[in-house]
Amino acid sequence: MFGVLNLSIWGYILAGVILTQITIASVTIYLHRYQTHRALTLHPIVSHFFRLWLWLTTGMVTAEWVAIHRKHHATTDVEGDPHSPQVTSIKKVFWEVPELYREASKDREMIEKYSHGTPNDWIEKNLYARHSAKGIALMFVLDLIFFGIPGITMWAFQMMAIPLVAGVINGIGHYWGYRNFECQDASRNVMPWALFVGGEELHNNHHAFASSAKFSIKWWEVDLGWFYIKILSWFGLARVKKLPPKLARNTSKAHIDIETIKAVISNRYQVMSDYYKLVIKPTLAEQKQKTGVDKQLIQRAGQLFKRQETLLSPKAKTRLQNLLNQIEPLRHVYVYRQSLQAVWMKTASSQQELVESLQDWCKEAEASGIETLRQFALQIKAYTPKLA
Q: Which of 81, 213, 228, 307 is most enclosed, with most CB atoms within 10 A?
């Protein structure tokens, strides 16, 4: 009745947590960071263990999961995104994400386009992909053998875990939470869920640096998946290929060169965050102190200048335009913000062309007569790239 292991009630709870964590680790390490984004490499033994475990606990086909997630990054929060609450609704994505995955997997042309590099060996073609549901049935039998009647509950919990995690990440992770980086999409970090979803809740960080094996950025953010990767690396079973870049400053450097461009482009979200803190925020504070300024209009205007314009609602865009029309200093720093973004968004024929564009921006900023802009231009010249 209680299976081969015959555990206590707390033993069953602990076993359920451990088994679920193995599944979550399989998704975040194998499917997401390794197969989809190639942020690390895994020893073949570890890689195949994850493949086997996912077959037993989810029935997910690697090629399909990877293709759907890559499509998500290619069309994030716009028409074509397989699972965005900004396109459909938070309710639909949170509760029906498995159905959205199944619907997306029917698009075989899309799967073929985005699944390059995924396993295509004999066992994948003849077992994991061909008989994906049989793994789940086998797991049910194994749970009964090892855990007895309580194994039915444990199996049900295992089957519910990943759909629930996917709802949190793909739904809430694009709807509610905080943002470290104002990237082009609506991704957000949803703390504190690290012990439940393996670090996947740091979704805004991930969208800012998609090819990084590490999702945590702030010192207080917990990425349990990264902890697992460090353990695997210590045993020689994983090798990290890429981490989030960091901005470094060389105070003796006073010119724009190729290194500056590399630092600015790879850390563009941090650069824009610095621009807000060092240029826009002081300008807003200065305007609040002036007489004749509509205090109500300028109140809580910070988000209007932080957020990408494409993500602002029509109402917010109107408020922003009213501010820019009425307050000239704000219009000036906003125009410079937009032209700075244009430097790395432009299609350049060479790195030298990008260097010249940034040099021109700094010259204009220094000659603008706005002290905060001049100081920021000097700071840009000191930027150099540095790995985390």
A: 213
Residue 379 has pLDDT above 70, yes or no: yes
Rounded Cα–Cα distance for residues 100 and 213 (Å): 26
Radius of gyration over alpha carbons of the chain, in Å?
25
In a domain, 228, yes or no: yes
Angle at 229 between CA 136 and CA 126, to 5 degrees: 35
Helical ranges in the chain per DSSP H: 9-25, 44-57, 62-74, 90-105, 108-114, 122-123, 132-147, 150-170, 194-197, 203-208, 224-234, 258-266, 268-275, 281-288, 295-298, 302-306, 314-326, 328-345, 351-366, 371-381
Domain that holds residue 281: 249-387
- Taking only the tens place, the pLDDT of each residue in 324-335 is 888 899 999 999
Q: Could you tell me which of 265, 99, 90, 276 has the C-alpha nearest to residue 190?
A: 90
pLDDT tens digit sequence for 25-55: 999 999 999 999 999 999 999 999 999 999 9
- In the chain the first and final C-alpha atoms are separated, in Å, by 52
Residues 96, 83 contacting (CB under 8 angstroms): no
Q: Is residue 1, in this structure, part of any structural domain at all?
A: no
Q: What's the residue count for the chain?
A: 388
Residue 225 sits in the same domain as residue 255: no
In single-letter form, the type of residue at position 364 comes to: E
